[in-house]
Write a structure and sequence with these properties.
Elements: H1 4-19, H2 24-56, H3 69-79, E1 83-85, E2 91-94, H4 96-101, H5 108-120, E3 131-136
Parallel strand pairs: 2-3
Antiparallel strand pairs: 1-2
Helix pairs in contact: 1-2, 2-5
């Protein structure tokens, strides 16, 4: 998955740094651009985690995974640090700091590929409304 927003902001940062060396205004601009890039990357990670969980929550689609079964198990274990199950198991909330730290070295590019393969196999989200509640457990 190519994040064009991140690539654009990174290139813009390189351009600005090459054109203007020094200056406090540009230092602030540099910090803002770096923050925007980090936020865009974080948002992509959140989106991927949610898509994966929506397709696989509580074993949904497990029997339809075929050759992806082992890959599903690996990612399911790796992502375990990034979310907590809500009361009643109706969904989950995410852990912002764990997603940023990535303690399990999750390969988000590979996760994006797996999610796309699941979708191309015709797998659908769990129809019972199991989804992210929009909250972070570490706030």
């Amino acid at each position: 998955m190519v994040n064009w927003k991140s690539k654009y902001l990174a290139m813009k940062l390189k351009y600005i740094n090459a054109k203007y060396k020094g200056g406090s205004d540009f230092d602030l601009l540099d910090q803002d651009i770096q923050r925007l890039v980090q936020e865009a990357v974080f948002e992509d990670k959140v989106k991927l985690i949610n898509e994966f969980l929506e397709l696989t929550w509580r074993g949904y689609n497990r029997t339809k995974l075929g050759e992806l079964t082992e890959t599903f198990k690996e990612f399911n274990e790796q992502l375990d640090c990034c979310y907590e199950t809500n009361f009643g198991r109706s969904g989950w909330n995410l852990n912002r700091s764990k997603i940023k730290e990535n303690p399990n070295d999750i390969d988000f590019n590979e996760l994006a590929t797996i999610v796309e393969r699941m979708k191309s196999m015709g797998l659908q989200k769990n129809p019972h409304g199991h989804e992210w509640d929009g909250r972070y457990s570490d706030e």
